[in-house]
Amino acid sequence: MAPSDWSRGVIVYEHANYLGESALVDKNISNLDDYKGPCMFTTSYGQGQSDTNYTWKNCISSIRVAAGWKATLYVETDFHGKSVEISSDVSNLQLVAGDCDHDGFNDCIESVRVSRQ
């Protein structure tokens, strides 16, 4: 979705510089594990049993913000943990002050609140 084609919420991207898969987020998401995305997570249950899930949890590296909107990004589910408020486009979440494993707030977002400013 091109940024000029939308007027609400934010668009999250899998990679920095607005590359890779993208998704519109125009409502609060308390657990990005429940929001289908490009990142694969496999849970093992022992005895060779496992489930694979594709989500946006810990999978956001850049974000575009529609005019008049803002997003608060949280490093834990249910809007907990460290957070950062974004009110304009961010091409690389590694450059946003934070202490995630991948630097800044890159690839460590687990819940998102969006609202009009």
Structure write-up:
There is one protein chain. The protein has 117 residues and is mostly beta strands. The chain has one domain (9-116): Sandwich (Gamma-B Crystallin, domain 1). The protein contains no helices and eight strands. The protein has strands at residues 10-15, 19-25, 36-46, 49-55, 62-65, 69-76, 80-86, 111-116. The strands form three sheets. A three-stranded antiparallel beta sheet has the order 2-1-5, with no helix packed on it. A hairpin with a 2-residue loop joins β3 and β4 (49-55). 29% of the residues are buried.
Provide key terms for this protein.
117 residues, mainly beta, Gamma-B Crystallin, domain 1, 3-stranded antiparallel β-sheet, 8 strands, 0% helix, 48% strand
The termini sit apart by 22 Å
Strand fraction equals over 45%
- What are the segments in which pLDDT stays under 50 over at least 5 consecutive residues? none
Q: What CATH architecture do you see?
A: Sandwich
Task: Output the helix-strand order.
Answer: EEEEEEEE
Mean pLDDT: 92
Number of strands: 8
**CA-based shape:** globular
Given the helix and strand composition, which structural class is it?
A: mainly beta
What is the CATH topology?
A: Gamma-B Crystallin, domain 1
Radius of gyration: 14 Å
Oligomeric state of the chains present here: single chain
Tally of individual helices: 0
In terms of topology, how is this protein built?
Blueprint: E1 10-15, E2 19-25, E3 36-46, E4 49-55, E5 62-65, E6 69-76, E7 80-86, E8 111-116
Antiparallel strand pairs: 1-2, 1-5, 3-4, 6-7, 6-8
